[in-house]
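Q: What structure does this chain adopt?
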Amino acid sequence: MLLIILQMCLKDITRAQMHGYPESLQPKVTLRKVECLVTLGRLQEAGQTIRDLESNFAAKPSLAAAQFQILQRNLCRLKMKVQERENLTASFPATLTKAFEDMDLREENEQIPGASSSVSLCMDPLKGRYLIATKDILPGELLVKEDAFVSVLNLGERPPLHHGVESKWDTQVTNGDLYCHRCLRHTLATVPCDGCSYAKYCSHECMQQAWDLYHNRECPLGGLLLTLGIFCHIALRSTLLARFEDASKVIRKLCVEMTNKDMCSPESENLAQTPSSDLGGESEKNGKTVKTPVPGCNLNGKYENNYNAVFHLMPHTENHSPEYKFLCALSVSALCRQLETADSSKPATAPPAWCSELSTWGVAMLKHMLQLQCNAQAVTTIQQPALSGSKENSVSNSRQVRLATGIFPVVSLLNHSCSPNTSVSFISTVATIRASEKIGKGQEILHCYGPHRSRMAVAERQQKLRSQYFFDCGCPACQKEKHQAAVGPRWEAFCCDRCGAPLQGGDILSCGSTSCTEPVSRDRLIPRLQDLRQQVGQARKLFGSGQLERAIQLLLGCRHDAESFLSAEHSMVGEMEDALAQAYAALGDWQKSATHLQKSLRVVEVQHGPSSVEMGHELFKLAQLFFNGFAIPEALNTIQRAEKVLMVHYGPCNDEIQELQKMKSCLLDLPPISLGPSV
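A:
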């Protein structure tokens, strides 16, 4: 993170100097540049910048005596710093490069670039394409590292503007202001597009690359694209990127599809009419029959992250409702009309019009919109707002948020499971998939499409998968839970108010104990649960406004009420304990905060599992509490547990892992004492 910030600082300084930064302040900003270069280990550039500054001042001695003395002192200090760094054997970027070595695949797959050699691509008439393990895979092993073929930033919602005398400027910050619209990197100072009001980038280089690839067409369509939605935007950008691979080849493919009955099914039998050099199929070569390659692969059987792979993603045309297909077609028509208008307004000296083949590209966009419902991948990031109100003693309360939507052809090869054996994370536009558990040789590599067993009951998962992805899930988790439907998940269980045992049943619940024969209606308990949720929400508002004592009293009352009808492992109980941990952390009472967080942790473990990424984030929070409370043995033990879990899901380059390592290093340097009772 420091490396990124320093590089951004250097770019900001360069931009300032290019755009007329005051000459009187040039020495000051140049000294900052030298500081950045030294910290980055770019010592030769730092030395040259110092020499340039000295020669410029000698030629134009314009500083006052006091300013001159300050400049001289700073120059001497920086010269000594450069000399010290030159004596070191390793520079800052070298250590950082070493930390990033694990981000690369140990051995890349010859058939699937971007995938590990530990997996293989298979084809089945029922399952379609899928990946299996070619050897035993250990937890944490990197299986896929793929850059998005296309990605579009989710700008975030803004409240509607209210016009009038008392209206104020809208200063709300969204993702569109904090992340680069091309590479999705977090940026502190965006570079806006010169032609529109919404596209912003982390650098001039990113802005120029986006302009050359697609933004020159998107720029005049900003308002329309925002109105039509992100799927339409991705569909347009995909076709714009396709032009740079082999436009004539793509046109031929699309024309064949337009003449086929099933226009949007790439695996239709009608595609046998397509020349084998384009789409594959059986062909004669030296008197021998060449086997049809897997859809999306080239004739050599290679599946690459390119437009050919995107083109062969299934659109499920026959499964979409007529209303949805009509809306997609209407959106594409509006977009094509606007593109045609923009193209006709260009001067005669402009480059050849892309819109000469607009009807064909329109077909491509429609196909991509239909593909996206089943093949779009949410690009997520971890946001870490402070749990404590104190800046000095903040405790991270991370949450995963959707940053962008993209197409990842290799990731799309993975089939769904409600209890997957992989974990996906993102750095910029790159998706990394790691094994979250041991995967045996020949076992299928499985990914979760969203409905996870730890977040939804089996009936809800089945309904969501059927409505969005058009299949009935038969994964082991679904099969097991169907047989246990009367029991339900432990984190949603009500308990008997007499003996505390979990209640079972459908509309009428009972604990099964002979001493507690009176049944209870589910309809009587659900309003109590809803009222509890409302009170916890009110407590969080009190916490947000600084009324910590009132928030704690309300939460303690909620917890007492919950004990009479919710199981100790209910997700609502975990939420209350987590809220109490936040409140006590804000007061600086680390012992009480850790006690409540440990109770919340038990609920997370029951719901998500001891090796889940959710468990890793909670352990990270608990480690911070022990660290802040100087509970050294407990802190070191929790740090070790958090590292073990998070390493499986993210590898060593995760921000939380690096923070844990800093805490451990600090604790090991402290004397073995604790400044309070152990928690």
